[in-house]
Design brief:
16 strands, 35% helix, 426 residues, alpha/beta, globular, 6-stranded antiparallel sheet
């Protein structure tokens, strides 16, 4: 990678949430203060919303890492579950094995646990990320849990975080009782132009820049035009721009490298998108060379010989990972939060590791970036990704151009992989 060229200790713009890289803008600091208030006030929920990539998960991880040892934490990220599954998930977080319990037993166990923790002087916090995916029935279970109390206090502190749809759901007439228990709501907005510049400088400094200006002011200004101040988009564009500079052995990033990155990502200016960043827009707008409806390939996800997902690949980029905000979700402990990405165009289909813990493996060898050929099988954890090339004139497996590109990428990857698998589970 480019660490040696830029004289950095670690990658500054990884997509995985890392609390040490957290930049507290005015809005992020306020949201964190609201979460911290749950430790002292138990009379209601705190709801934090924000668009995809606004930094909610990183904020949560930072908040949880700073809690005192007398705080017991239950953190749920898998939210497309039944009420029974939700109660089981909460108890698993508390150290129980609840899978043979009926619902009455689950509720009694939660109730007794909360009362015991209160009696022992410990605070209990339930944090639910991606809460917009919760069904009304599960939200009702959360409301009932919030009512468990002693003669003096409530026993459970609750934070719900999610995309703006969460507010719409909580405002529904059928959830009026839950809405009345919400004490604080806060919506995370994108960063301003000045905050975006400070965000970039902060992440570079944490990564070891030691005051060096790696991205020029003009580059950062152009970067803001294409990202709109959305942290995840800033990370993606900065990382790609630094890779562009690395390719020409340049240890600074200027406007030319940002433009090259924009060209590679095939992004349009943020202002030209809708006011709300839809999932497809976050992934990547359609490439100029192909219709947005043109199927250029197919990806089959399988485990133990059973297909668990199939996806037509069109021009653009998809993210694969463990959590629900990914385009393809693989709910496995062997898969990182944002594990890898697949970028598809008429010219090539490329899979790239996103600094995951367990990496991506081709033919028994870990690679960081690979030009996919027809029939390639990529292994991530206990799952296989099988790629079928459907490009009308694209190179197939075994074609000289594809083989050369693949070989060179694997050679680069083996050297990068020797640096280690990353910074632990994402």
């Amino acid at each position: 990678m480019y660490l040696e060229l830029f004289r950095l200790k670690e990658l500054p713009f990884r997509l995985s949430p890392d609390p040490q890289f957290l930049y507290l803008s005015k809005h992020h600091a306020r949201a964190k203060a609201y979460m911290e208030s749950t430790i002292w006030f138990t009379d209601g929920f705190v709801v934090i919303t924000g668009e995809i990539g606004a930094g909610k998960t990183t904020l949560i991880e930072s908040f949880l890492r700073e809690l005192d040892k007398d705080v017991v934490i239950a953190q749920l990220n898998q939210t497309q579950i039944s009420p029974l599954g939700f109660l089981q998930g909460v108890l698993v977080q508390f150290g129980f094995s609840p899978f043979k319990m009926n619902k009455a037993e689950l509720l009694a166990t939660v109730n007794n646990f909360l009362i015991e923790q209160y009696a022992a002087g410990r605070k209990v916090v339930l944090v639910v990320d991606e809460a917009q995916n919760l069904s009304n029935r599960v939200l009702e279970e959360i409301r009932l849990l919030s009512g468990i109390e002693t003669s003096k206090d409530k026993t459970l502190r609750i934070i719900l975080a999610g995309q703006p749809e969460l507010n719409d759901k909580l405002n529904a007439p059928e959830l009026v009782q839950l809405a009345q228990r919400i004490r604080l709501r806060f919506h995370l907005t994108a960063l301003s132009s000045e905050e975006s510049a400070a965000y970039v400088a902060h992440r570079l400094e944490v990564a070891g820049a030691q005051g060096r200006q790696i991205l020029s002011p003009a580059a950062v200004q152009l970067l803001y035009r294409y990202t709109g101040g959305v942290p995840r988009l800033i990370n993606t564009l900065c990382d790609t721009a630094m890779m562009s500079a690395f390719a020409i052995d340049k240890d600074t990033v200027d406007v030319e490298e940002v433009r090259a990155a924009v060209e590679e990502l095939q992004w349009i200016e943020y202002a030209a998108r809708t006011n709300r960043m839809a999932r497809a827009e976050m992934v990547v707008p359609v490439l100029r060379h192909a219709s947005g409806d043109t199927v250029l390939g197919r990806l089959i996800v399988a485990t133990n010989g059973h297909t668990v997902d199939e996806r037509d690949l069109k021009a653009g980029r998809i993210i694969i990972g463990r959590t629900a905000e990914n385009d393809i979700q693989i709910d496995s402990k062997y898969v990182s939060r944002h594990h890898c990405q697949v970028t598809v165009s008429l010219e090539a289909a490329i899979i790239e590791d996103l600094n995951s813990t367990n990496g991506i493996v081709l033919k028994g060898k870990r690679v960081r970036r690979h030009v996919l050929g027809n029939g390639d099988v990529i292994v991530i954890g206990q799952h296989e990704l099988r790629f079928t090339d459907a490009r009308p004139h694209g190179p197939r497996a075994g074609d000289p151009d594809t083989a050369d590109a693949t070989g060179s990428q694997e050679a680069l990857s083996s050297g990068a992989a020797s640096e280690g698998p990353g910074a632990g589970p994402h």
